[in-house]
Amino acid sequence: MNIFDTVAAVSTPRGKGGVAVIRISGKDTARLLSRVFRPAGKVSPAEAPRRAVFGSAISPADGSTIDSVLATFFASPASYTGEDMAEISCHGGVLVTRQVLSAVLAAGARHAEAGEFTRRAFVSGKLTLTEAEAVGELLDADTSDRLKLASSALGGKLSDKLKETGDQLLGAMTALYATIDYPEEDLADMSSDEVASAIESARQRIKRLLGTYKRGRAVCEGVRCVICGRPNAGKSSLYNLIVGEESAIVTDIAGTTRDVLRERVSFGGVTLELCDTAGLRDTDDAVESIGVDRAKNEIASAELVIAVFDGSCHLTAEEMSDASLYNRESAIAVINKSDVGCVLDSDELDFIENRHAKAVYMSCADGMGTEALEGAISELYDAGACRIGEEAVIWSARQQAELQRAEEYLREAADALSYGEAADAVCTLCEGALGHLMSTDGRGVTEEIVSGIFSRFCVGK
User: Which residues contact 395 (CB under 8 A, 6 or more apart)?
Assistant: First the structure.
């Protein structure tokens, strides 16, 4: 990838639509645009930046008209990429879009690679790395919470928090450097106690950000969640209740669900990759047996298990044995059919409560107890620890890893200060922390990491 090339790509989804947008960015944008666009009036787009100009898209080879279009020119640095940039809006037919793009490429542009426009915005300083990552999340947002998180990060909430923390740490380091460089002079504007306090305050800020990761990841990546239980316990009814529609077949006949049903849904403040599975039991039915095996495989790979128990019946030996298929810390028990009364005795209830992180009473048929289940999931994934859209939240493993290393360095720096270590040793540790803090937002980040982030973007973004 040569970032000095002028690049172009279709920025709207492929297929037929009302309008398609071809985006161009680079130092030769104005020249290329003049070769493929003929204004209907006397003013060219480059002469009227940021104003849509009506005209025709033309072939640079023979000047023939391709389509009636609108062209907008954005002069550097007032553009998305920070470079000279243009957008041509044409009719959204597959062929006409292809021909307009081909004309731009024939005029001298290179086809943009995946994520190249946003990468150029990052390189030119228009976006921080976390803001650029947020663009990707915004494009992939499929729940309202994910959209809120991406929008707030793109708006700079996370970048601002990282900068505040870095500035605080820099203040402490400046005082330490003054002590190192001029040990005989009292030049530092912070006392040793104030330096220690600033380092600890920066560490606590980082810890608070790290505390948002579980929720942020659950919102953006989703939690692999499996609903399991014996036949007719109410698994499919619960699945339909969470999904909000009749996706799974519900009957009184045991073994109705034989395959794995999947849906992505926002519930309890997190995104669930929800799976409904076949009822767990020994069976001679070959097809149902395959379904049971698939259910066990799903349970083994699940991050969250919702185990449904029929409260109107006593526990079976199979149910008690099946509870060993999943970890207690990642399991929620739903005691279903509370509307008809619970016959489980104290020993059975103790077993359920001891084998699951949380237990809720529900009637999946009429929705009673839905809020209690949402609350249990919310508590399990710290959904109340941060307000999505209002506070800085981290969501990627890369962000978490960088901040964890920064926090470790600051913890060592605080210990070094308390043990009376030399100021240069403390400074070295603070420099390590600052390096990881800056890398979180793309300052000092490696080329390999940057390439990995932008490779996941679509072409045209």
Answer: 137, 149, 153, 213, 216, 217, 219, 220, 221
